[in-house]
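Tutorial, part two.
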Amino acid sequence: MSDVINKAVEALSAKIDGDFDGKVKFDISGEGQIMIDGDGVRAGDEEAECTMSADAETFQAILAGDLNPTTAFMTGKLTVDGDMGTAMKLGSALS
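Running the prediction step on this input gives:
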């Protein structure tokens, strides 16, 4: 597993307290996937209500708080496939 994925799982676990009531997959180009759901955060590639895709630089900027997820989406740096409501709930949890 990539170092980017390992660090992202750790950072997301600290931000999301485990009671997220959706199922989201982050697809980080060239690095791998991360699942976020009611069971917590983990590396994995499973079915999800929503898949958010970005390159590693964009994803790391979102995690660091340097880039707002909504801004990333509006500028085309982050794409969302699936339930937009679930994506918005996760975006709020990351802010």
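The two ends are 26 Å apart (CA to CA). In part three we will examine how such features are distributed along the chain.
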